[in-house]
Structure formats: structure tokens, C-alpha cells
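the four lines:
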Amino acid sequence: MTAANTMTTQAKPAPGRSYLAIPGPSVIPEAVLSAMHRPAPNIYEGELVDMMPGLVADLKRVARTKHHVAMYISNGHGAWEAALSNVLAPGDRVLVLATGRFGHGWGEMATGLGAEVEVLDFGRSGTIDLDQVNARLQADYAHQIKAVMAVHVDTSSSVRNDIAALRDVLKAQDHPALLMADCIASLGCERFEMDDWGVDVMVTGSQKGLMVPPGMAFVFFNDRAEEVRERLPRVSRYWDWRTRAHATEFYQYHGGTAPTHHLYGLRTALDMIHEEGIEQVWRRHTTLARAVWAACEAWEAEGSLRLNIEDRDLRSHAVTALRLQSPHATELRNWVQENLGLTLGIGLGMAAPGEPAWHGFFRLGHMGHVNGHMIMGMLGGIEAGLSALKIDHGPGALEAAARVIGGEG
Amino acid sequence: MTAANTMTTQAKPAPGRSYLAIPGPSVIPEAVLSAMHRPAPNIYEGELVDMMPGLVADLKRVARTKHHVAMYISNGHGAWEAALSNVLAPGDRVLVLATGRFGHGWGEMATGLGAEVEVLDFGRSGTIDLDQVNARLQADYAHQIKAVMAVHVDTSSSVRNDIAALRDVLKAQDHPALLMADCIASLGCERFEMDDWGVDVMVTGSQKGLMVPPGMAFVFFNDRAEEVRERLPRVSRYWDWRTRAHATEFYQYHGGTAPTHHLYGLRTALDMIHEEGIEQVWRRHTTLARAVWAACEAWEAEGSLRLNIEDRDLRSHAVTALRLQSPHATELRNWVQENLGLTLGIGLGMAAPGEPAWHGFFRLGHMGHVNGHMIMGMLGGIEAGLSALKIDHGPGALEAAARVIGGEG
Amino acid sequence: MTAANTMTTQAKPAPGRSYLAIPGPSVIPEAVLSAMHRPAPNIYEGELVDMMPGLVADLKRVARTKHHVAMYISNGHGAWEAALSNVLAPGDRVLVLATGRFGHGWGEMATGLGAEVEVLDFGRSGTIDLDQVNARLQADYAHQIKAVMAVHVDTSSSVRNDIAALRDVLKAQDHPALLMADCIASLGCERFEMDDWGVDVMVTGSQKGLMVPPGMAFVFFNDRAEEVRERLPRVSRYWDWRTRAHATEFYQYHGGTAPTHHLYGLRTALDMIHEEGIEQVWRRHTTLARAVWAACEAWEAEGSLRLNIEDRDLRSHAVTALRLQSPHATELRNWVQENLGLTLGIGLGMAAPGEPAWHGFFRLGHMGHVNGHMIMGMLGGIEAGLSALKIDHGPGALEAAARVIGGEG
Amino acid sequence: MTAANTMTTQAKPAPGRSYLAIPGPSVIPEAVLSAMHRPAPNIYEGELVDMMPGLVADLKRVARTKHHVAMYISNGHGAWEAALSNVLAPGDRVLVLATGRFGHGWGEMATGLGAEVEVLDFGRSGTIDLDQVNARLQADYAHQIKAVMAVHVDTSSSVRNDIAALRDVLKAQDHPALLMADCIASLGCERFEMDDWGVDVMVTGSQKGLMVPPGMAFVFFNDRAEEVRERLPRVSRYWDWRTRAHATEFYQYHGGTAPTHHLYGLRTALDMIHEEGIEQVWRRHTTLARAVWAACEAWEAEGSLRLNIEDRDLRSHAVTALRLQSPHATELRNWVQENLGLTLGIGLGMAAPGEPAWHGFFRLGHMGHVNGHMIMGMLGGIEAGLSALKIDHGPGALEAAARVIGGEG
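prediction for all of em together
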């Protein structure tokens, strides 16, 4: 991912507002940035200390759980490790259901902790084959598999997996493995019902649907998971979710010094989410995603552009991965960057063997602080780029998107 | 202009970034806001004091003049009064060439100072008729007209007048009247050559092409104008441009306490303009305006939407005024506001007798800190609104705009 | 006031927080700066428009008046001119009561408008001699004097004049002249009761007790003053207070484009003032001023440092002017600037004939967003500077100040 | 550390600037906050990616090392765990030299990772007894002790330990244990020479001498330490310093998504440090600490106030712990908080058995973005509080401090 690899020539920034339309970090609301622009607060008493119970409650409302949340100063990779550290001992076996790069990544984190990691790989353009999962669990008559790990939305492929259905498979087999979900790219964007869907452990980060700069991550867990943790002989102090989730002193929430400024940003972001209403947040993401799809499907009619996930029911509402004849994808990204100040996401882990790394893929982020004029600006910028670079594409894309935003389709 | 009049129901703000696409105040760059977010500086020595000569020079470069500039803590109306106060004594006659509301407004300011104001009114959809001006000046054999006042771009009608041609008329008649231009809506957007075009006095504000919040305004003047001022018996202390333009102490630049934070914002904005290059700034505005026109002309093909200025050569590159069957214009503005967080400009002074105040007009700002994805977002938002409200309009607007931004047309 | 004159060698800023302890602009609260760090708002409807009636009411509460206020985008000099423009016609006579530079300055503004200006000069270290004023008014049997102009606190001398007593003099003579007060350096710091004291016109600015960056100024007036304005044949449009004070449309409040960002800053500052309570704000300024005086009076015991105003009852609670053997004052200012990041105010208009401009004077601002640790930091910085420069001074200054802040004295 | 325990009644904030004078988080420079107030940047290419090599180099310059640094999104506790995770396997033995709460805390982190932790406890008011350390190492003929862990400055006791002398002890015994130093409260404040002093591993955080909000922490290590890590069978992926310190791709520096906004803040803070010069930064802290000591030693002359560390040579230059007859310490903290907006640090882990938790202790932070007027403000505020509460104390404290800042002593 070096600059050279991405074929970009360094240029001074384009005039006008920049628009970072990558699948995370997402666009940060002004109000969140303003909330973080403040002197260091007291960390022993006062406003920040008093704010914590409400923050915890409002985080849980986003995740739709009545259970527990542990906050970490870390990125999503840290939350991956934190979650695993609380439920796995070295030598424990886990089953990873991979539908893109991030499933594999989480699995590697488990390997790093000494777990035996078994991966079912469902490719880079499809979802989890529940029959395969069912078969594997059935074969595990000794219940050696301690956890089944799945990514709700894999940011690299933009597939959205059906986590509720996964729980049904576990239930059908009466398998005691914990169901662990990575919602880093989906929480605050996609419908996710932690308790109703029977998810035992869920991890997410601050920088996507939660609209806060990277630097905090969260592990949600229920009582089943907590019991597992209690039976572990040792959990590292920093990752131990016990004191964090059941803090009685302020410093325990964060295992030491609090991420003071992120907490203020998070407070503001949660206010925005709950003021809009989490159900409405999901609806908004659905509409905007459909607008993106309508445009992309129109472009698909001519030329080489293709949505990575063909089936609408399997597509994320927060990110869209696209293929475009190499090196057009990179050329397009570069053109909109240099001419419009619009940054599109690079392809991640999507290249077939022999292909140049990612010049045939790109991704659109439409998560968090987004609305109709932003999406039309992103799509309009792509249309301008396709036109400027004379890359073949079907007509009518923008009007199709506008119709969706206008309420049709 | 009360809320009731504009038919808007108060609603909580739409999610996502808001976009203020009105013809001023324009979108303020993050860098400008950041530059203004600072403790109060010393006003007697140090950085701010040392910054002034460069600021003056860089302002003049935007106006393409080697002559003088006086800065005022005021809005554009203040600059209007300031400019007039330095060249008119009560009883002096001026000729106002009105092509929309703002020409009339400037004339009223002259009346308020005791001048005899004569208005040639060229309507709300056209430009100055140079023959009429020529005839009027020819008739003024006694040279009673002390100044000819014209608006470069009238924000209400979005007409762009030919200031250079106006100078030619004065020259042809060898008329000594000062040529005064209002560039409030054009400076930093449209080509303007103060010295080459022979403009004697020019006024502008901070909040449009200069991309700084409202609160500063500027009067540029040349030596001819300065001679007129020197012959006046009295100029009010606050408006007197002499000490401001020829300041030897810091406080003289601003006739008292300096607008400290605006100066930092202005410094940053001028840096942005000159880093891009003023010629390139003009080219960018031209391209984006053509994209707007391409979309509007496509919409015009069906239904009632009409560009207020038919002739492309007379259209502003910074603002576009449109007609849309009342009350569709207001409905459209309200829809994009409430659903997309996109604010379009209301019509100003455009209603025919008997029409409801402005429900049949709206305006688009495309001035200052704008680029291709923003314009596509604004146009895409309008397309979505037209679709949502089932307002008839021609097809292909967005793709036509995208092609222009992509380099065609 | 050039850099050379102030004997300062340019240096990189001292580490740590800077502290601008000059008598305006004053220290701007973080909350005010944050409120101003926002995108440009809509100026036709919405939050900003809706905010105005409350803003007007809260401004009047600070001035203790039930009458009218006109807001101006200008500095204090602009407010001076605005106030005079609404009550004077050319040729009208005014009586200026000068107790320092700013009284003279306001008088010059009246001269600039064509008024006949008569100055009673009470020097640079004392207050108004009411007997002289009485005598002059008595002599004006024809009531040619249309207005009596006085500065509440003259920032240059730090004298605080008794405005209520001035009204008594006018009343005793039954003189119809308007009583006009300049509260630029006192409003929001010193007790000021516009209605109770019978002040007809009062001017102030945003950048001192109101804690907002320079760029707005205010003219308060009562019905008597309004009647005078109504009888004037002509008031310039920009300065006319009528439409501003009785606005029915948003743009009328500001005579054109609103100072959008200052309005948000002002809203926040007024919230802070009224949350603390205006009476408590005055008490706080009184206590802090007494702490400053306690220190200065201790320093006076040895060496050349002298408070410019000897009588405590005549001293401002917002600014303190001091004498210190030239060039020690400048050396002290330079030392605390370069070594501590503490900026003290220069002397203004205080030098006796033959003295170097201001190297024997300096001023301390203690207005607006100040508290006990700030004042102790300012005084402690001066003590350090006196010590470093081996400038003679009496002992016990800091402990005397601390005792006042601690509640004694 | 609940609000109830600290005896504080919740009150609205005191007017004026707040001053957080606790030993971390420290006062954050405006410039750092401004640098963090920005849209999310691209994390795949561009400015942020290009900034990393310089950032790494400038971090190493602060630590005076030519070796390696790994950055973590975490607080200091995370850095503790990270450092230990790279050099310890479960069962390894470490020797903790405790001089206050934080030495014990680091040891607990090692316990949490499965290490055998041996603590030499030197109390809460003194430094490490090198003879004891020498004896213990001598006894370890089998070299079972893999690491010696010491805190440079223990924030709870404010003792400053001699890390160079500790290396001499190890060297004298030719003991191969790694020397690990916690510089969380000292880096960027106290002279620290990682390479010259032979420190193998050093940890620090962003929120004290580095003047950035909490949320990043750093582990510096040399080649000896790296060899230890290479021999470990397994290091968790998140804590593994290898990829972070030898990153070839941007995401590797941070083990996933970068802490984008903290990186900009850190860039600015490092610029400030190196512009001042790290040696000068240390000198400034030394001077300011001596000023604090001068005041405290004067106060000690009467009443119960006592510096926790008697020996000047053992005192930190960044934090000062004080005893004051319970509950005066808490009363004093509360008084300056409520009346002056000045926040002093609570005592941490200092109470003797049977004493109320911390009402007899408090701490002063004087680290990072501090200067002479701030220190005088803090000390002046304390003097005012002592006076208000009629707490006995010796005279002359403030003048003594001012003399130090003025260059004497």
C-alpha cells in the first residue's frame, strides 16, 4: 500500500471541500470535531466522570444489547485481540468463517494468541455457506470448537453476512461454541440485533458508523461469554474486560488513563445517532446504498464495471466494492482525487493471482455521516471521472440514483 | 423573509454534512475556520501587525490592481457607503445602472448620503444597455454626473455585466465620471481586471469569493478616485479611506481595533487563492458554472424550470438564478433542505407584481470553496428533489454536468 | 506603535499558554471560539434567524436597559460614529468630557461628522470635574449643546467616571442635551445602569467585557434619543439605527449580510454572562481589581512604580494604568513577553511632553474572561520580571493580592 | 475516586480560563488541538502516510535513542503491557523496583502476563536503594531475572529515580537482565538519555510531556531487547512491536487503522518540542520546578504542608506531591477548583493505614505546556486558598518563586 503502488502522483489538494468516501475512517461530523476541541478535562471527578454511565447505556442501545460493553483505547485490531483474549486459552480451537480479508485477519489474531484456528473460506465475492458450517459443527461432536467467528460486513468484499442465520445453525446443532461477530464496518449502519440474534461477543470500532476518529474500540459480550472468561486461568490486564465492563472507578473503564477527547467525541456522536433514531439511521443507510447500487447497476450495462457482490440481499449498506478493468480503477481513483478532492477506497485483498495488486478494484464508503447530496456528489464525481477518462459505462446512472434518493425504488 | 413566508416547517437538521449552496455567505474552508480558532492576538506588535503589508499586497493581486485598498469592519452595505462617502458630497449626482436588486440597493445608499441618484433600470433578466448609457452621458454635457455605479454580478438576477465595455463608453464620451464597480458577488470568482478595465473604485466583501465569514469588506480605489476624495470638504472618520489605505500604524488600517480573527481567516484564504492561482480560480468557476448550466439547460427541456439569464455570455460564473412555477421553487428548496441538508438560495427581488413573494424563484451559489463533487452533489440533490416532488423536468441533466466537469464542453 | 518603537526584539513565542493581559481585546473563552468554528449558516431562515430576539434581549440585560439596541459590524470607532450619526446634524454642538485619549477620540469622530465640538479636558489622571460641567451647562442658556459625551472607563488612563452623577448635573440644570456614554471598556465589567442612571445613548464593543473577538459594536439608545434621530433630516443608511433596532427582517438587524460567526460567539458569551449573573460578574471584576491594586500598592512602596489613578474610588475595575520610570515599563513588558508569554498593555497617550512615547507606562487588562489564578499569574509574572530586571519595588505584593482573592480586603 | 470520596460538591465552572494543574493529562497546546480539528484523512496515501518517517525520527530524538520505537493506540497501561509482552514469556521472572503506586502497577501487569514478579518496595517517599538492588542481582547467580523494571518519575510520590545509576549496578554485576524504564511522567520533561544510560526498553504516553490528549503510547527498545523478543515463541499480534517498529506499510505502524487525529496532534507537539530544543525544554522544567519548590519550602516554614520528597536531588521536575493535614488537602483542592477554576491533583496511593483515603495529600503537575505565568498562577491560587481557608503556612512563598522564575536560584 505504498504511494508508488497506488500510481498516484502527489499533487496539491484540489480546491473546495475534500470528501473522503472510503470505507473508514468515515466522514467525521463537525459537531464531533468541535466536541474534541477542548482543554484536557479532569479525570478524577466532574463532567467526564459523570458522563460514563450514560455513555455505556447509549453504546448498548446502538448494539441492541442489554448485556455488557468494554471500551478500549485501540483500533479494531485491538478489539479483535481483546475479545479473543477474554474467551480463548492457548490451544483452544476456533472456527473462522471468512468472506474476505478481514475474516482471515481476525483468525490470524487468534493464531497470535495460541489458538488453533480453522478457516472455512467462502471466497471474496460471496457469503457464508451455512450448510458447510452446519456440517462442520455436526462433525465436532466433542465440541472442541470454542467459538465461531464471523464478520458481519467484510469491508474488503462488501458482503453482508446473515449473523442471525448463523445462530440458527449453532442452535440447530445445539453447539455450545460462542458466536462472535465483527461489526467494525457495520455497527451504526446496518441493522444489528445483538441480543435477538444471539450474538455472544461483538467487536466494533469508533471510526465508521460511530463517526468518531480512530482510537477507540468496543467489545460487547453477554453473560454466556462472561462465564467463559471467568473460567479462563489468565487474561492479560489490559485486555481483561471484567473491570472495564463493571467499573466502579472511572479509570477502570479504560484500564488506566481515559481517552478524554475521544469520549467527548463519542458522546456527541451517540447523541446524533439517538436523536435521529437507530432505526432511522439504518433506513437512511439502506436508501443511500440503494442509490449507489442503482447507479452502479446502470454503469454495469456497458463496459467493465461490476459490483463485487451480485446479489442485492448480500450487499452491505455501508460499503460497496467494485471491479473495473485494471488499471482503470486506479486511474479513476486518481482522477477524482486530483480533480475533485474526492477520495475513493482502494481495493483490499481482492486481486486474483497474477493481477496487479489492486488497479482493477475500488471501493465506495457510504457509512455514518452521509446523506443524499453527498452520495450524489460521490456518484457524480465518478461519472465525471469515467467521462474524462473515456471509460465505457452505461447511461442513466445518476438519474437512477437520484430517483432512489427522491423516494422511488 | 420571515420563516413563515418561506413556507418552511422547522425540522431537526438532516444527517450528514450540510451544504450551504446559497450565493453568499459561501462555504468556508476548514483551513479558514481553523485559522480563526485562536486566542486573541496582541494588536500592538508581533505577528498580526507584521502580517499587514503582505495582506494588502495579496488583496490587490486578487483585484488586479496596483493602486489602493481600504479595509473595513463591515458588510458589503458598509463598503457601499464607505466607497460613496469618499467620492460624493451631498448634492452630487450619480448614475446607477441597475440590473437587479443590488444596483438599486447601492443607489439607495447614495441617496442616504444626500446624493442625487439617477437610475437606469435594465430589468431583472438582462444586462446594461450600453447605448442608453452612452446617450445619457452624452446628454450630460455639463458633467454633472460624478460617478457611474454598476454591479459586476448582480446576485439577485445572476447577470454578469461587462465592466470593461462600460469604461469604453465613458472613454468614448471623454466623460470624467468615476467608474465604480460592485464586485461583492464576483471577486475571486469572475475575471476582474481593475486596472486594465479602468475601474476607479471597486467594493467587495469577505464572504463570497474570498471565503471568509461576513464581517470585513474592502474598497479598492485608484489615484483618480483619491484625487476626488482629497477635494471633498469632509469625509466621516470611520469611512475615510485615506488613513486606512496609507496606514503607518497598525490601528489605522482598521480605523481603531482590528478585526483580529477575520484577518487570520483572510490570510489563509488569500494563501489558498494564490496557491491555486487567480487565473486558475477563474477557470475553475467557469467550468463549474458551465456544469450547472448544462444541467439546467437539460432540465429546461421539459416543465417550467428556466434560467433567469438566457444568454450564456451574460451569466455569472458564481451564482445562477432560476425560475420554477410557483410554489415549486419553494417546495424544492424545502425538500432538499429537510431531506438532504442542502440549502439553496431564495429568490431575491424577482417576483413580478401579483406573484407570491418568491415561491417561483431560487438561486444556486457556486462561488469560492467549491469543486466538482460539490456541484454534482448540489445538482444531484435538485434532481432527487424534482423527482420526489414529481416536478416536470428534462432528462440527462446530471450526465451533461458530469461531462463538463470531466472536461467536455 | 511600530515594532521598532516598542523596543521589542522579535522572538519565537515563549512555551506554554500565552496570556494576553492587555485592556482589549480580552481573553476569548474557548467556548466562544468553539461556537464560532462552524460552517456558514443560512441567513434567510433557521437557527440564526430565530436566535435574534433572544440575543437582543440578553444584550439589553447586560446594559440594564429596557430600551433599544442597534448592532453594527464595526469596531468601537464605528459605534462612536454610528451613535453620533443618529443624533447630530452638521453644525450641532456637543460637549466632550475628556479624561484620557478616548474622550478626545470620540470628539474627533464628531468633528468628522461636521459637529461643533467643545472639549473639557480633565487631564490623564483624574476624573470629570462636575462643577466645571455644571458651570458650562448653566452658561448654555440657549441649549445649543445637543449632547454631553463622556467615557465611562477611559482605557488609556484607567479612570472610571461617575456617569450617574453626570446625569444629576444635567438634571439640576434641566438641560435637554443627550447624555452619551462610551462603555467600550466597561460594559460587562463595571456596574452600569443605563436606565437608572438616565443615559440616553451608550456605545460598546464586542471585544472587552463581552469576550468576543473584535468585529461587532453596539449602540444602545432610549426613546429621547430616538426622538432626536427622528427629527434629523438625514442619517446615512449604514449607521441609521432605526431599521437595526426595529428589524422585522433578519438582514435589517445588520444593515445587510449578518456577521454570522460573531453572532454565534456573542450568543455563547451572553450565555456565560447571564449564567454567572451580571451582578456577580461585576463583583468578580471588583475583587480581581482590588487584588491588582493591593499588589500595585505594595510595589509602590519602593521604587518608581505608580498607579496612574491614585483614588481607589476612581479606578476602573477592568484596566489599570501604571507608570514606571522610562524605559523600565517597556523593558518589563518585553521581559514578560519573551520569557513568560505574558503580554501587558502599552501606555496609550500618556507620555508627558518630551518623554519617549510610552516607555514609562504600561497597562494591565483584567476584563471579561478572567479569574483568580489568571490574575495571580499576571501579577506573579510582573514580580518575576521586576526581579529579573532588578527594578526596585516594594515587598509583599503577591501575598497581598492572594489575600484579596482569598476573601480578605 | 468517586465524586463522593473527593468531597467535592458539584458546582458550575468558575469563570475565566480553567487550569488543569494535575500531573497528567497535562495542558494541551492550542496548536495541538487545532491540528486535531480536521476532517478524517486518507489512510492509504498522502500527507499522513508521508509524515510517518519524520514522526518516528522526532520521537526518537525526544527519547535520545537511535534505536526503535513502536507506537500503540493505548494509554500508558497498554504500553506497560506491550513492552512486557515483547520480552517476557509466562514463567519468566522480573524484578520490580517500586517507589510509589506506578511501580506496583507495572508489576501487576507482568503478573497478568504470567510472569513471576518480585518487588523491592522502597516506600512512598524515597528513591531506589541501589545497594539492595545490587545485593539482589548478585544473589541471582543463575540470571533468572529477565528484566529489572523501574519508574523514572513516579507520579504518585513525585520521586525521580536515577536510571543511569541503575544501569551501573547491572553493569557492575554483569547481569544480563533487561533494564526497563517507565518514563510516562518524565519524557519531554526530565533529562532522559536512553542510549547513553543503557536503557533497553522505555515506555511513555502521549498525555504528559508530549502534550497530546491521552490515546497513544510508545515503547522504545534497543537491539538487545529486540533479540529477546525474537527468541520468544509467541507475541500477541496487537502488542508485537516488530511490525510496528519496522513498518513497510502505513497500517503496520499502528497494527491496523491509524490514530489519525492523534498523529496530527503529535506532529505538532514534536515540532514545538524540537523548535524549543529538548535541552531547553528540560531547562525550562527545571526552572519551573525550582520555583514550585521555593514556594513550597517557604510554606513549609509554618503549618503542616510538607513536600513528599525532602531531597531536592530526588524530586521530579514535572510533578510535586505534597502532604497537608487531612482534610485540608481536599479542602484546598476544592476551594481553588470552585473559586478559581484551578484543578490540583489528588493524592494517589499515599495514605498511611487508617488515614482517610487522600484528604491529606495533593499533587501539582508542572509538565509539558507550562511557563512562568502559569506556575505563578497555580502557586498564587494555592496561596489564595490557604489564606481563604486559614490554613497555616509560611510567608514569602510567591516572591521566592518569582525570584526563581526571574533568574535567581
